[in-house]
Write a structure and sequence with these properties.
The protein is an alpha/beta fold. The chain has two domains: 86 residues, Rossmann fold (3-Layer(aba) Sandwich), CATH 3.40.50; 129 residues, NAD(P)-binding Rossmann-like Domain (Rossmann fold), CATH 3.40.50. The chain is built from nine helices and eleven strands. The strands form three sheets. A six-stranded parallel sheet has the order 1-11-8-7-5-6. Strands 3-2-4 form a three-stranded parallel sheet, sandwiched between helices. Strands 9-10 form a two-stranded antiparallel sheet. Helix 1 packs parallel to helix 9. The protein starts with 14 loop residues before the first strand and ends with a helix. The N terminus is likely disordered.
């Protein structure tokens, strides 16, 4: 990715990490790679399996298919009802595994109550894992040599990969830095800690049982907030000049207008203390979606 040069900012005002612009640059690159693949007879295709009608999931799936159309990736979509059984979902996974038009696919989470997501992920062909969440692919990340020696020839989880690319695009160092991650979820916290450790950062993973999350943040050069709690990270949690990546997203009701607004995990006032800050929306979200496309294209290139 092309390195982004930070523009001058007002004193006491963090540099805005523009995930939308970075994602656009990734898509431009992928569009050229997709064209080159098609010239060799390889047509990248993303498959999606959606169970139920969760509004957030419906929106995410629609966005992913729009992204595919932007760069020339084919779309194969399977929508199952909320009443779908485990066997129904297994059949859908087998269909995606066997379909030659599907380069890689995702099982949209969360699944309905009573359906074990891990057992479903395990049924996926690891080579077709667009989200990088198959246990075998996560295992490759665990086994990766610290220091970045050698490549990981398996898909990486999209949000952690996007965060690392965002930091690199703004020349924010990772090696030797202390990173505090708030949240230990499967899609962000846990794999991000592994990825950053491989890049020789000192990664501290905090969660609801951590005694003093604020203290862990105050000594961090980089904070990644992925707790899903609006405004959790206060300005006095942040070391002056630290980079702050806001992954959280919460719909908050404005009682005066009656409308909902998207809020991140970081208090907006943190901009007066942080050196770099990713916005919500327009930060990590677009890069997560761009990394999904990148995983699809790379899976096609590995073929």
């Amino acid at each position: 990715m092309t390195t982004t040069t930070s523009t001058a900012q007002d004193p006491g005002q963090a540099v805005r990490i523009d995930g939308t612009a970075l994602a656009s640059a990734v898509k431009d690159d992928l569009r050229e790679r997709v064209t080159a693949l098609k010239e060799t007879g390889v047509h990248p295709g993303l498959g999606t399996i959606l169970v139920g009608s969760n509004p957030g999931s419906l929106s995410y799936i629609a966005g992913k298919h729009r992204d595919c159309a932007e760069v020339g990736i084919e779309s194969i979509r399977l929508d199952l009802p909320e009443t779908a059984s485990s066997d129904d979902i297994r059949d859908a996974i087998r269909f995606m595994n066997q379909n030659p038009l599907v380069t890689a696919f995702i099982i949209q989470l969360p699944l309905p109550d009573g359906i074990d997501p891990t057992s479903m992920l395990e049924l996926m062909d690891p080579a077709k894992d667009a989200d990088g969440l198959h246990p075998l692919n996560l295992g490759e990340l665990v086994l990766a040599v610290p220091g970045g020696n050698g490549s990981i020839d398996t898909p990486l989880p999209c949000t952690p990969r996007g965060i690392v690319e965002m930091l690199g695009a703004y020349d924010i160092p990772i090696a030797g830095q202390h990173v505090t991650i708030i949240g230990q979820g499967l899609t962000v916290g846990r794999p991000l800690g592994l990825l950053l450790t491989r890049l020789e950062a000192t990664a501290t993973l905090t969660h609801s049982r951590t005694v003093d999350v604020a203290a862990e943040c105050r000594r961090a050069d980089i904070i990644v907030a992925a707790a899903g709690v609006a405004g959790l990270v206060k300005p006095d949690w942040i070391k002056p000049g630290a980079a702050v990546i806001d992954v959280g997203i919460t719909r908050v009701l404005n009682e005066e207008t009656g409308k909902y607004k998207l809020r991140g995990d970081v208090d907006p006032a943190a901009s007066a203390v942080a050196g770099y800050l990713s916005p919500v929306p327009g930060g990590v979200g677009p890069m997560t979606r761009a990394m999904l496309l990148k995983n699809v294209v790379e899976a096609a290139e590995r073929r």
